[in-house]
Amino acid sequence: MNRVSTKVRVPDLAVMKERGERIVMLTAYDATMARLLDRAGIDLLLVGDSLGNVILGLDTTIPVSLDAILHHTRAVTQGASRALVVADMPFLTYQLSVEQAMRNAARLFQEAGAAAVKIEGGRPIAETVRRLTAAGLPVMGHVGLTPQHVHRLGGMRQQARTDEAAQELLRDALALEDAGAFAIVLEAIPDAVAQAVTSRLKIPTIGIGAGPHCDGQVLVSYDMLGLFDTFVPQFVRQYAQLGELIFDAARNYANDVREGVYPQSAAARRNGAPSLVGK
């Protein structure tokens, strides 16, 4: 595939895994950022419920609503022309029943323009994945550290640290693949476990805090860009410090306004003095 111009579609990811081409994924929450990341050649844009943390300032993703994801997904799909846009299904929008999951997922496709949805969990939600994919709605799975289950897991900590837990995770991943998921996010698990799962699955794995052996990688864009400094996971590499740049720019602007340096009088006019002057 021509990574610059070719529209990324769900079947392309399996081809990329087969060819050994690494898949690149970042979160996006608005049209402007989506447009920039799309131009940079990012393959998938995830409208993550991480917006609860980095956009809304919440401690967890649990309060994030379906309406919030719909709102931000609409914006991202307006900005992305090449990347595949995946929308997170928020907490308790798919767990109560298959019918509930179908209704809510359909809204993300029909109203917001998502090309796929992502749901957290393993075997307990496999039947939901099966029904959604049978209806033609592409589903990405998510196992390991699942932030919507933060209270049950006892915090944001690495998962699959024992042989038994690793086997459970593998069984979950295989069940999601069998149910029709087109890819699976592996979050916060040991490198060796991620490598073993990736080698067993025919569908791509996308890692976050899961080492270098997954078929692709995803990061929260605000972490990668140095915009969110409340908490930065150890596995994150910050490729920029945009938070500091924005802080400096805003401070310089404020100083210029207060000191009367901006705007200059000439900058306020176009083609000489405004027509109202002298009347």
Short description:
The protein has 279 residues and is of the alpha/beta class. The chain is built from 11 helices and 8 strands.
Write up this protein.
- The chain is α/β, with parallel strands linked by helices and 279 residues long.
- The chain is 40% helix and 13% strand.
- The chain has helices at 10-19, 31-39, 51-54, 66-79, 98-110, 126-134, 150-153, 163-179, 191-200, 221-224, 242-258, and strands spanning 23-27, 44-47, 84-88, 116-118, 139-144, 183-187, 205-208, 216-219.
- It is globular.
Task: Assign an overall shape.
Answer: globular
Q: Average pLDDT across residues?
A: 93
Specify the structural class: alpha/beta
Largest beta-sheet characterization: 8 strands, parallel, barrel
Number of DSSP helical runs: 11
Strand content: 5-15%
Helix content: 25-40%
Distance between the termini: 64 Å
Total strand segments: 8
Strand order in the sheet with the most strands: 1-2-3-4-5-6-7-8
H and E order: HEHEHHEHEHEHHEHEEHH
Low-confidence stretches: none
Radius of gyration over alpha carbons?
A: 22 Å
